[in-house]
Design goal:
The complex is a heterotrimer.
Chain A lengths: L1 H31 L12
Chain B lengths: L6 H21 L3 H5 L18 H8 L9 E6 L2 H4 L9 H9 L3 E5 L11 H10 L4 E7 L14 H9 L7 H13 L2 H16 L1 H11 L27 H4 L8 H10 L8 H12 L2 H4 L2 E5 L4 H4 L4 H20 L4 E3 L18 H21 L5
Parallel strand pairs in B: 1-2, 1-3, 3-4, 4-5
Chain C lengths: L5 H16 L3 H20 L1 H20 L2 H32 L1 H11 L11 H16 L8 H8 L13 H13 L3 H31 L8 H32 L17 H7 L2 H12 L9 H19 L3 H27 L15 H8 L4 H30 L2 H12 L2
Helix pairs in contact in C: 1-2, 2-3, 2-7, 3-4, 3-6, 4-5, 4-6, 9-10, 10-16, 12-13, 13-14, 14-16, 16-17
The chains are: A mainly alpha, B alpha/beta, C mainly alpha.
Chain lengths: 44, 378, 423
């Protein structure tokens, strides 16, 4: 029984870890496209 | 690492997460952005680390406010057409809309440091793709209409639109876009590859949405302490006319006059071939057929300091460019600022509110005539 | 940062697809070597590829042929290459040019045209790995006999740009294990590690933006803000560097290959000695094994120990950058290490040493066992806790001030340090 619950716990955490990893990677793909430093278009 | 994830549920979570986020990116839409849209001002722009996507352009162009217009008028170009120098409540495209009436819907997609071939054209082309009536009012500088996609600040939007099928098919441009991914400068290659990934994973749309609606996620020097506020909370920062009064004509005169003079090209100058070739490559014929090109002129404050021969050559350059654009299929090419005064400018290039009003008054009848010629109006 | 480019994402997708699809270890090794060459060439060009291949060739051959002179000569070639690419301008222009302006100017005009236009990618890392390899072979360790194994070691792309600095004795078995059978577990742990690194990099980039923005106003802020600034500086470099290391370790782990850890919660350190056991571990171990110990280490008495530590740390500082502030930063940490070594004995007498709570062998005697197993008093525990906190706080102040030396020119860093204590 303990083994079963321990496994459920590990599997759930693993699933969450996978989801979080996906979130981080998806977000960083967006961040890669942003400039490192802003450039300013001078008006005057 | 104490916690060792089990591979199967981890990979399941990873794939599920990526699929869900990609799907979310494909469906989210900032209705607030579309419905309140005036222009992509500085806080919704690349300068402040916000890269409007092709889907956002589409949402803005097709925004559901009031009845469906008979004719879409898409405005493209540089900071001049963007309305730098004009507060959003007094922007020239509002006056253009007033002159044209409800049959027409004007959308200002001109961008600071942009051109008519790297952002505004996306709005026009996606409508043309769908068979909608559209007139493209496109700003141009004295000698070049188009921007080299490899160096444009808005290349990300062009690649995004290209991958999503928003652009009109045009082999010379399509070939250039393909080449950039392999042979362009490093930053352009990156943008091309990023857009390819984004076409499937939609990360730019999702995180732009989050940044606009809820919270920005990256420090930006211009936003400073407000870097993590939502973009929707930032108003259009352009000034009211009285605030510009003290800021006029601060640029170095020698440098400004050099810039003015450097724009003069004789009709036989070989550089015309290069710039027109670039324009042809970046502008599909179907788009040229519905385009009103406006050649921007510098302020008389500077132009009148040229000697008479230079002044004549300066004006002749603008008209020569207009003529050459018509030759390659632009429906109309005009020099609307020919009779503008110093008061119609806030600096060397950007129009004041009065200049914007004059521009709108001049352009509106031309747009209406074009709409009739193109069969949009009964 | 190379890992945060779309081109790298494309490279990684192609690389790992091939790596997992192909099951043959020899072919996998070939993919690894080719991947390393492509990586070096793309991000460094011929300027980068040629020196690393030439040095790798020299190192491999010297190791194979053997002989003290041959190996020592190869070490000299590696060191000379590093100095030539990285330090010539510093030596000629910044050092000689500053001390003897006229002579320096003439020397600069002669030397400048011969200076390379760019520094090979990861030169500070691959030269250190080659020196480690040659030194250990000279000491009697078995050399790598297969060129392809050596090339894999030399061109291992995850650690190419910024470490961790590998040791070939650990790398080769790990390499063969990974090539033979990268498991799903490896891929999972690797991906998680990469995600952690990415999250750290995001935080570091935001801190960088804030630091760059606030730094011009450093002197206008109150002292509390200045300390917050130093804290941000310290956090930024840890997140940036450890985030990169996490990604490098993660990518290697995805191949089933374990590479050394580089950081172990360095800001929990209670002394500069402990700090260097937790910070950039692969580098500090290298400095210890190939500079400090060969100089004599702590075997030749206290004064010599101090000199050795200072020398090793100045070189460590200069390794980070060819500028005087890096040398001073190294000297500063060397001084800290020396002082910590002097104080270590006194402090440890006051603290409860938890290692002494382990039961002693029977030969020691029952009385000794009883004495050792008696739990420490509340007073002793409180004293230990206070000492730990004071030592930790002192170490953090020491390290934080060190970061000012690391990031800013000497004069500016000194000024900023003074203003941490005086409004």
């Amino acid at each position: 029984m303990r083994f079963y619950f321990a496994n459920i716990g590990r599997w759930s955490l693993s699933l969450i870890a996978g989801l979080v990893t996906a979130l981080v990677m998806h977000y960083m793909l967006y961040k890669i496209g942003l400039p490192l430093k802003p450039f300013i278009y001078v008006v005057f | 690492m104490r916690f060792t994830p089990a591979p199967l549920p981890f990979v399941t979570g990873l794939l599920l997460g990526l699929l869900t986020l990609s799907w979310l990116g494909s469906v989210v839409e900032s209705t607030r952005l579309a419905e309140s849209f005036v222009r992509f001002h500085m806080w919704l722009n690349v300068e402040s680390g916000y890269f409007p996507t092709a889907r956002q352009i589409r949402a803005v162009v097709k925004r559901r406010i009031g009845p469906e217009p008979t004719v879409h008028v898409i405005v493209g170009g540089s900071s001049v057409e963007h309305g730098v120098g004009q507060h959003e409540s007094l922007i020239w495209t509002r006056f253009l809309q007033e002159h044209l009436g409800p049959e027409f819907r004007v959308t200002n997609l001109a961008q600071r440091a942009g051109s008519s071939t790297d952002f505004g054209n996306i709005g026009a082309e996606l409508l043309l793709h769908e068979g909608r009536p559209v007139i493209y009012v496109a700003g141009s500088n004295m000698t070049t209409f188009s921007m080299d996609i490899r160096y444009s600040f808005y290349r990300h939007a062009m690649f995004d639109a290209w991958h999503r099928g928003y652009l009109l098919p045009w082999p010379p441009r399509d070939q250039l876009m393909r080449d950039v991914a392999w042979r362009g400068p490093s930053a352009a290659r990156g943008a091309a590859l990023g857009s390819l990934l984004d076409a499937y994973l939609n990360f730019n749309d999702l995180w732009n949405f989050v940044g606009y609606e809820y919270a920005n996620s990256n420090w930006n020097r211009l936003l400073a302490e407000r870097s993590f506020d939502s973009r929707a909370s930032f108003p259009d920062p352009d000034y009211m006319p009285e605030q510009y009064a003290n800021l006029r004509y601060l640029s170095d005169m020698t440098q400004a006059m050099k810039i003015v003079k450097d724009q003069i090209l004789s009709p036989t100058d070989p550089r015309w071939q290069r710039t027109l070739a670039s324009t042809e490559q970046m502008t599909p014929p179907r788009l040229r057929a519905v385009t009103l090109a406006m050649i921007d002129l510098d302020s008389p404050y500077y132009v009148d300091r040229l000697d008479p021969i230079e002044r004549e050559a300066f004006v002749a350059t603008a008209y020569e460019h207009a003529r050459r654009l018509r030759e390659i299929g632009f429906r109309r090419a005009e020099v609307p600022a020919i009779d503008f005064t110093t008061d119609d400018y806030i600096d060397r290039t950007h129009l004041s509110v009065s200049g914007g009003q004059k521009l709108a008054a001049k352009i509106a009848p031309i747009v209406r005539t074009m709409a009739t010629e193109l069969g949009y109006l009964q | 940062m190379i890992f945060l480019t779309y081109e790298f994402v494309g490279f990684a997708l192609v690389f790992f697809s091939l790596y997992y699809l192909i099951h043959n270890p020899t072919l996998r090794m070939a993919i690894l070597v080719i991947g390393g060459l492509v990586f070096q060439f793309h991000y460094g060009g011929w300027v980068s590829v040629v020196p690393v291949l030439v040095l790798a060739g020299v190192t491999f051959l010297a190791g194979r042929i053997g002989g003290r002179r041959m190996v020592t000569g190869a070490i000299a070639v590696c060191v000379f290459t590093l100095v030539f690419y990285k330090y010539t301008a510093f030596i000629v222009i910044d050092s000689i040019g500053t001390l003897l302006p006229d002579f320096g100017s003439a020397l600069r005009n002669t030397v400048q045209p011969a200076l390379p236009a760019a520094i090979p990618l990861g030169i500070s890392f691959f030269t250190f790995e080659f020196v480690h390899y040659l030194t250990d072979v000279r000491r009697g360790d078995r050399p790598i006999t297969r060129l392809r194994e050596f090339l894999t070691f030399a061109l291992f792309w995850p650690t190419m740009v910024a470490g961790p600095i590998k040791r070939y004795q650990q790398f080769l078995p790990a390499l063969h294990e990974g090539l033979a059978r990268p498991t799903a577990q490896d891929a999972t742990i690797g991906l998680m590690r990469i995600a952690i690194g990415l999250a750290k990099k995001w935080a570091a980039d935001n801190l960088t933006g804030w630091i760059d923005y606030i730094e011009p106003q450093f002197l206008l802020q109150d002292r509390t803000w200045r300390w917050v600034f130093v804290g941000a500086l310290a956090a930024r470099i840890l997140l940036d560097f450890s985030g990169y290391s996490d990604m490098a370790i993660g990518f290697a782990r995805m191949m089933g290959i374990a590479v050394p850890e580089n950081f172990n919660w360095p800001y929990l350190a209670r002394s500069p000695i402990e700090f260097w056991q937790r910070w950039h571990i692969s580098l500090s171990l290298w400095i210890r094994d190939y500079i400090y110990i060969p100089l004599g280490g702590s075997r030749l008495g206290l004064p010599r120990r101090v000199v050795n530590a200072l020398t090793a740390m100045v070189l460590c500082g200069l390794w980070h950058g060819a500028a005087w502030n890096f040398a001073v930063w190294g000297l500063y940490h060397g001084g800290g290490l020396a002082l910590a070594a002097l104080m270590q004995g006194g402090i440890s007498r006051l603290r409860i040493d938890r290692t002494k709570l382990v039961p002693q062998p029977a030969s020691v005697g029952a009385a000794a066992v009883r004495a050792v197993l008696t739990p420490p008093s509340l007073h002793a525990r409180l004293l230990t806790a206070v000492i730990d906190i004071v030592c930790w706080a002192g170490t953090m102040v020491f390290v934080g001030i060190g970061w000012l030396l690391f990031f800013y020119p000497l004069e500016k860093a000194a000024h900023m340090t003074v203003r941490l204590f005086i409004q």
